[in-house]
Design brief:
alpha+beta
Length: 355
């Protein structure tokens, strides 16, 4: 499926010439002032040739000089007025409705030399239009189920067809709005992930805690079958796009906002109103070369696939409130409103997120 082709506009600038031309007086030839050139002494240098050529043309030497001068001025004027050649933009190669992929059955990823699509706003989120061709998606209507299948197939083709390093899901709009409303009030939390107990204490359970941060990045425009360049876009009715960062608590304590998140979830709401679905994309941070192995990593990534899935499911457990009096809801509320009463022991009771 093809990448979104953005049309470009050509702007022409003009400037008033009245002041520039006002300095030319009628007592001097305007062409000499507008196109100054080096004066040639025809009489002393080319007299014989001029006489011979004038005789061949049946005119006088003075008439020949005037003709040559006019021809020279005409050439200069023509060269200045000649427009630059227009080079038509290269047509994009045909591809399919999901954005850049390595597989030839879908589409080819843009080369490193091609300029990336830049945002007009200040959002740090990669636009969904960089992944899916939203115009084509609307032009050839897709159901929410078809969009979900397309989304899963795209991410399943990542990392050489293994899907490693990525998570994806299609969230019903109603479910997302419930979680987002809770996250707007309580944007941070701590989630425990089970770990192997150290030697000598196998009878005890070990955990690694992750600090969770929600952030909202405004409402994306509703996709349209075609883009009207000179029409003011309608205000978007989509809910806000959001991101969720997961950072090891110990690292967050040491580096605060400079700490590296191990997992980033993005909730794309571009198709919320049109398809009643929010597309979730999870990206696991790759391990830097030479970095020490982490307890949760698998060599290539800072977090293994199973732990990433556990963290994503924990968001549903603590932010999708079916009952405000449920213990998970009380824990999140206490964490923000009464932090001194928050007990880690109560949190560990909910460490089994698959239940």
């Amino acid at each position: 499926m093809s990448m979104l082709l953005k049309q470009s506009s050509r702007y022409w600038a003009t400037c008033p010439a009245s002041r520039s031309l006002a300095r030319f007086s009628t007592s001097h030839g305007w062409r000499e002032e507008l196109y100054p050139s080096k004066r040639i002494d025809y009489e002393s240098k080319y007299l014989e040739k001029l006489q011979k050529r004038a005789t061949e043309q049946g005119i006088s030497v003075e008439q020949l000089k005037a003709r040559l001068k006019d021809q020279e001025m005409a050439k200069r004027k023509e060269s200045l007025a000649k427009p630059l050649p227009y080079q038509a933009p290269k047509a994009p190669e045909p591809t399919s409705a999901a954005g850049p992929q390595q597989s030839s059955s879908t589409t080819t990823a843009p080369s490193a030399s091609s300029s990336p699509i830049s945002r007009k706003d200040s959002s740090p989120v990669k636009p969904l239009s960089n992944i899916l061709n939203l115009e084509k998606l609307v032009q050839t209507p897709h159901t929410a189920h078809q969009v979900e299948l397309l989304w899963r197939a795209y991410h399943g083709s990542r990392s050489g067809g293994t899907g490693r390093g990525y998570l994806c899901a299609a969230i019903p709009l109603e479910t997302y709005e419930k979680m987002a409303s809770v996250a707007a009030k309580y944007p941070s939390f701590v989630i425990p992930v089970p770990r192997e107990a150290p030697e000598g204490s196998e009878d005890q359970r070990a955990y690694e805690f992750y600090f969770v941060e929600w952030a909202f990045h405004g409402s994306p425009p509703e996709p349209a079958a075609s883009v009207e360049l000179f029409t003011k876009p309608k205000p978007s009715t989509n809910p806000q796009t959001s991101t969720i960062l997961f950072t090891p608590l110990q690292e967050y304590k040491l580096r605060n906002s400079f700490a590296t998140p191990y997992l980033a979830l993005t909730n794309y709401t571009d198709l919320a109103r049109s398809h009643d679905v929010v597309l979730l994309r999870g990206e696991i941070t790759p391990s830097s070369s030479g970095a020490a192995a982490t307890p949760s990593g698998d060599g290539r990534y800072m977090l293994n696939q199973q732990d990433a899935q556990l963290l994503a499911m924990a968001i549903q457990k603590f932010y999708l409130w079916t009952d405000e009096q449920a213990e998970s809801a009380k824990l999140l509320r206490t964490f923000h409103e009464n932090p001194t009463e928050f007990k880690w022991e109560d949190l560990l009771k909910h460490a089994d997120f698959s239940a």
